[in-house]
Amino acid sequence: MSKRTDPDKFIVTKYVLYPGLLLALLVRCCVAAYPYSGRGAPPMFGDFEAQRHWQEVTVHTPARDWYRNTTHNDLQYWGLDYPPLSAYHSLLLGLVADWLEPESVRLFASRGYESETHETFMRWTVFLSDLYFYVTAVLCICIHMERVTSKSELSVFKRTDVSTVICLLYPGIILIDHGHFQYNCVSLGLFLWATFFIVAIENDIMATIFFVLALNYKQMELYHALPFFFYLLRKCFITVTNESSMAHLIYRFTKLAIAVIGTFSAVWYPLVHSWDDVLQILHRLFPIKRGVFEDKVSNVWCSANVFVKLKHVYNNEEMVRMCVMSTLVACMPSCLDLFFRINRKKFVLCLINVSLAFFLFSYQVHEKSILLVAIPVTIYLPDDPFTSLWFLLLSTFSMLPLLLKDGLLLPLLCTSSIYLSFYSIALHLSGLETNIFSVLSANTVYEAAKTKSYNHVVMKLFSTMFFFSLQGMILLGLGSLLVKPPPQYPDLFPLLISMYSCLHFIFFLIYFTYCQLQLPMCLPVQLKVKKN
Known about the structure:
Blueprint: H1 14-32, H2 47-60, H3 84-100, H4 116-147, H5 160-168, H6 171-181, H7 184-201, H8 204-215, H9 225-236, H10 245-268, H11 275-285, H12 300-304, H13 310-313, H14 316-340, H15 344-361, H16 371-380, H17 385-397, H18 400-405, H19 409-429, H20 442-449, H21 456-482, H22 492-518
Helix pairs in contact: 1-5, 1-6, 2-3, 4-5, 4-7, 6-19, 7-8, 8-10, 9-10, 9-14, 9-15, 14-15, 15-16, 15-22, 16-17, 17-21, 17-22, 21-22
C-alpha cells in the first residue's frame, strides 16, 4: 500500500479532515438560521440582547463605570456580570457594530434592537470567535493525540480527522453558541489552549497564562481551576537534582506566580483604580442574592428542592457554605489523586470530575454550565468512546427545556442525528463489521477504540444501561412535546428531565473518578512523537 493511501499514516487524515471541518462549520451556519434566545420577547428579551447591550454600554460609557449602576448604565437591565476580558471583547465588537450600524449600539435607544443586518453581524461574531479560539484548539489537541500514539495502539478515534470532527460536531456547544446565542467558544477555546500546553507542549507558563485568560473571560472557568492548580503545583515538586531541590521548587513556583499575577494585572488594570472597584466587580461576578440555581438545572440542589424547598430552610449565606463544603468533598478524591499520583492522563479525567462536581454541588449553577464538563469529555472520548458518547448525548438532553423555549427542537434533532451518524461512520472506518445500531454495543465500540477490556458481563450491562437511558430520554422528550402537564405542576417535565439527568451525572462522576483512580502514577516527561 502506498504512503498516500495507508490509513495508519498521519498524512491520510486530510481526506476526512477537510470535509469533516466543512460539515462542522456548515452545521453551525444552519443552526444560526434559527431563532436566538429572547427574540421578540420584551421587555428583557434574552442572551442575544444581553450581549448587544454590553456592546452598547462598553462603547458609550467609561471603563470604570461598566460594572457600576449609573445614569448611563442601568445594572437592572442586563448589567455586565462577566469578567473584564469579556467586557473588552464586547467593546471590540461594539466598536465594529458602531461603525457598521450605529443604531444597533446607540445608548438607550437601541434596547431590543433586532434588525436582520445586526443579527447577521452578531451571528458572524460568534462564528469567527468559534473558528479562531475553539476550532484551532481542538485541532491542535487532536493532532497531538495521534502523533504521540504508537501505530499498534492507534484506533480510529485517535486519528486526527475523526477525533477533530467528533469534537466539533458535539451538539451542545453548537446549539448554545450558534442557536441560543453566547460566546462560550471563547472561554472554552482559551481553556483548551491551556490544556494543550499542559498535555502536549508541557509549557506550564503558557498553560497558566491561557487559563487565567479563560477565567477572566468567564468566571465559570473556576470549574476547571482546581485541576490546573494541583497539577502545576505538583510539578513544582518535580526537581532536577536533589542538591538544588528547594531552590528549584521556589524557582518554578515563582514563575507560575508571576504569570498569574502579571496576567490578572494586565487584564484588570484598565478597570481598577481602588479596592472599591475590585469589590464592585467581584460583587457583579458572584451575585449571591440570585439563589443556588436558575431555572431547572440538572444538579443535586434543584433535584432536592422538589422534596424540600431549600429557600424556606436555608438562607443564601447558609446555602453558599453548604455548596462550598459539598463541592470540595466531591472534588477532593480526584484532586488529591492527581497531586499525589500525578499523571498527564489523569489531568483530563480530573478536569471532568472536578467540573462535574462543581455542576452538581456548587452555587448559582446554570443549565448551560454542563458545557464546562462536556468539553473535557470530548477530549477524553478517544480513550473511552462508549461512556463519553453516552455522557455527551445526556448533557445535550439535559438542556432540552431551554432549547424548547428557544425554538431549537429541530436543530437539536438534526445536530444529534448528524453526531450519531458520524460516530457510526467512525466505527465503520475501524474495519469492524458494524451497522447503525453498533453505537449501542459497548463491546463493539471498545473493540474499535482498542482501549478498555471489561469482561463480557460488564460490557453487556453498559450496553443495556445505555439503551434504557436513551429510551428514557426519548420518552421524556416526547412527554415534554405532547403531554400537557397538570395546571398545579406546570414545570413537571423540566423537573423530571433535570432529576433524570442529575441521576446520570452522579453515576458519571463515580465512573470517571474510578477511571482516574485506576491509572498509575507517571511523572510528566517530554513525549516523543512518532515520525511519518
